[in-house]
Amino acid sequence: MSKVLIFGISGFVGKYLTQEFVNCGYSVFGSDKLNSGIPNGIPFVEADLLNEIQVEKVISDIEPDMIVNLAAISSVSASWDIPQVTMSVNVIGALNILEAARKQDKKPRVMFIGSSEEYADSDKPINEETKLNANNPYGISKMAQERFATVYRERYDMAIYCVRPFNHTGVGQRDNFVLPSFCKQVAEIEKSGKAGVIQVGNLAAERDFTDVRDIVRAYRMIIESNDCTKVYNVGSGRAYSLRELLEYIVSLSNQDITVEVDPKRFRPIDTPRVVCNYNLIEKELGWKPEYRIKDTLKEIFEGYLGDMNGERGWQEYDF
Ligand SMILES: C[C@H]1O[C@H](OP(=O)(O)OP(=O)(O)OC[C@H]2O[C@@H](n3cnc4c(=O)[nH]c(N)nc43)[C@H](O)[C@@H]2O)[C@@H](O)[C@@H](O)C1=O
């Protein structure tokens, strides 16, 4: 049975990726800075990605066939407040994994998660040929990570995979991201049984959102594929304005909701429209999205309405 080691397993995507690999018969191991709750039955080792000795020890003890790194500063907004930390975690952290992996006798496959935020603004749907020219600290860190991955792949003959996912969401995503934030605020008003006010940022932005379950399926298919030099876009191929998605979420409630624009939620730069062209991964690996984002939004909203506070129950991950 192939062994997969996931760094950043305690985060939102980690839980879904674990489930994806377990469902496909892999033996999954997890590592994170803190054990903030990981699926039962998954071996866990605490390690700080910025501690190269700890990272190397985890990898040499487990001897994985594959490593996926999900540990990152993942919020574009946060990256403007803490650009140094963003570069450090997202780039030095990746380098610590690369350095440890290249020292193993049996070199594992390694996968790094990039982002649509690496691309320059584009009027057209973004394919993999679109110029990379990030306009925020987070995107720059992901470009740097990808460049290191390419150089290590070529210089040390390692199987290093990179992928560029577009925005994604699902039950359990933190509410500093836009869609859980909107769902949580609207659900709280609904639960209160009276009219209320919600705070929003730039509703004119148009983004291409995919369900996290489609995203993790793409990650697995990519790291299972044979050509690690291909970097695939993963997204839905359709952009919605945040205004339209907010209107949909508000329509799930029976209360009167007032929308207030909070200038603090705006960023120094916000690309107006981002749409994914996923033809390459569809043609070469047969991946395409299966979930519809409005169904995902309903699940997130209902999660906040119920007792789960938007968190998926751990029992679903009892392997
Ligand atoms: C592809 C990319 O996807 C994500 O990027 P993000 O920008 O951090 O995501 P977000 O959900 O914070 O913002 C999305 C959009 O929504 C707008 N927006 C409006 N109103 C609010 C608002 O009230 N809150 C927030 N957070 N955003 C708002 C905001 O201005 C922006 O245009 C990460 O996973 C990242 O890791 C990644 O790779």
Automatic annotation (TrEMBL):
<protein>
    <submittedName>
        <fullName>GDP-mannose 4,6-dehydratase</fullName>
    </submittedName>
</protein>
<dbReference type="InterPro" id="IPR036291">
    <property type="entry name" value="NAD(P)-bd_dom_sf"/>
</dbReference>
<dbReference type="InterPro" id="IPR016040">
    <property type="entry name" value="NAD(P)-bd_dom"/>
</dbReference>
<feature type="domain" description="NAD(P)-binding">
    <location>
        <begin position="5"/>
        <end position="299"/>
    </location>
</feature>
<dbReference type="Pfam" id="PF16363">
    <property type="entry name" value="GDP_Man_Dehyd"/>
</dbReference>
